[in-house]
Amino acid sequence: MSVPPVDPEIQSLLETSDTGVFPVHGLASVLANPERYQLLRERPDTTADDRAKVEDLFIPGPGGQLRLRVYRPVAPATGDVLPVVLYLHGGAFTYGSPEAEEDHALRYALDAEAVVVSVDYRLAPEHPYPAAADDAYAALTWLADHAARIGGDPGRIAVAGVSAGGNLAASTVLRARDLGGPKAALQLLMYPAVDGSATSASAREFTDTPILDRDATRLAWRHYVGDQDLETYASPAQAPDLSGLPPAFVVVAEVDPLRDEGHRYAERLGAAGVTTELIQVPGAVHGFDVLFPTARISERNLTDQVRALREALHS
What we know:
alpha/beta, eight-stranded mixed sheet, 11 helices, 8 strands, 37% helix
């Protein structure tokens, strides 16, 4: 399989951006070195936005106190009680934080007019599966019971996740279905890592793609599941039945080893009767909208993400 060309604007940004400790190529070397991926866990400084109130809440979690970072529009046009977006950041299961994706969360909060709750879940390899999945589900159940505390409507909750967070979002709604837990209005899965077998064509053959490649994908899964079996809540693609799940909005990046598994998961959702919208972004690399939000393809797709949230939460 030949690797598709990267969007020219994204390629230019890849060549000129200061990525700091995060490499454009060679993420596997970072994931193999605890000293290097620890640097990616540091919470970056964030810029205050007077259009939103940002606060940290701490709730009881499966592993102890669980931090939720909450983003609420200051002057929403749709009233005082807002829908809720449960947000799960990316980071190959190994790094990342709510602060690292704060701009993304604020975009959802302000443009979709929602309270966004970003989960500071436990990270592998120190906390392998099911730690992160348990934290994500605990956050959903807490919101269902306590959304009013943050001005949220427990009857209008979307679950959104980026990359590894897309895995956790898919896992969370599967678990809620199976356990009779809270029903989400939407699952928004951004280039999700849903198949721990990493056997799709793109997962096998995209060996040198920017940001994420085959070796980094395999190492991320090794950190997360180790020698455990790939059960449903670790690897949602292993779920035998995807019926009865919330409507789905799935985005895949064309130049991404996770592309084909995202395609397949969306196709299975649709075949199971789940209303599903799938968008493949031409020329996009993994994480394009988070890393390069001002690029034209990112802006177009972020607009689509917000549209999906608004349609699910405000209709």
